[in-house]
Amino acid sequence: MKKFFIQTFGCQMNVYDSQRIINMLESYGMQQTDKIQDADIIILNTCAVREKATNKVFSALGRIKQSKKPTALFGIIGCVAREAGETAFKRIPDLNFVLGPQSYHKLPLILSNPDAKLLNIDLGGLEKFDELPQVEKSPALAYIPIQEGCNHCCTYCIVPYTRGRELSRPFKDVVKDVIQAANTGAVEICFLGQNVNGYKYIDSDGKVYKLSDLIKEAAKQDNIKRIRFTSSYPTEMTDDLINMFKTEPKLLPFLNMPIQSGSMSVLKRMNRPYDLNQYIDIVDKLKAARPDIQISSDFIVGFPGETEDDFEDTMKIAEKIKYINSYSFKYSPRPHTAAALMEDQIPEAMKKQRLAKLDSYLNELQRQFNESCIGKTLECLCEGLDKTGKHLIYRTPYMQQCVVNKPAEITWPILARIDITEANKASLRGTFSK
Asked: Residue 226 pairs with which residues in a beta bridge?
């Protein structure tokens, strides 16, 4: 039996894509392996959001070249493939395929003609969702993409280039995927999109479907106990969606809503068309709808032209909202973006210094929230064993990792009420509630 190896970089959309590739290759009679040297085909599913991520991919490709079987096929799919295009073959001549994020369903072409060089980085439509085999067994957490691409065109972001303009999947197709996931093992649904709350599908009768409609449909499935979505754009948090946090108990009290910067002048240069008062007003509406809701964010530090006052504004918004966890990065110039051409680039040392200060404060906020959970009982979803095999990893409604001693029983509950007993910056510890 032939074997395949797949490594995933980047966002949850890539995690979903890799799951579908695994299903596809298994339907061809192949078996997954975690050993590169045993694989007959090696796939890196890549992310190009930051320069460091792209460099990691090509470093990994160089190592694979040295350790793979001589006859093994290997290549890249995803956003780095779209970004690099034909130059990927020049950097790594031994590559067999380079497939963009909307073209990975064409992998069987390289299986049927292993001597060919396969390049397909065109921005297609939603064909991959139609051509891939249906999932036969879903993990407890099922990622369901509802759209591809993004129309916001932030000046720092390569996504409109690598994944194209926004396309929303047909409402019935998404619901079909939700039902299939619910019937084959899913307990939690996470709707995915680069601009997930911008989902808008108009059917042949002119009826408009939005993310709130998808949440309602998912909640009808008895097997689905938890629903969430990522990643959200602030101005797309419409009142109908905010109201879902009030009316739908299966929707988790947690939202990732990236602000990127607390400075109005930086937001303007980023082409993020909202002001701080508007953002704060959305948070206030969410908390009025669901008092226990918590917010996470993304931050970019050292964007071109960012002054010390701009950076302090970012510190202030973090203090104002009190994000329970966040992803923060130094600005990284990306090809095909307007910000890469801006003249007032920030020195690397200054970006590093500001990021360290912001990270320190965000970590403190996360520690404070984690410690506030001690003594509470939270319903958590099991993600499996830790690396030692002695503990179970559960995920709280706020996406915190909670470590629980593995019980003596052979099986353990997928969903469990857990008493939180300890906390630190990174995680919680708890015991099964009696």
From this structure: 188
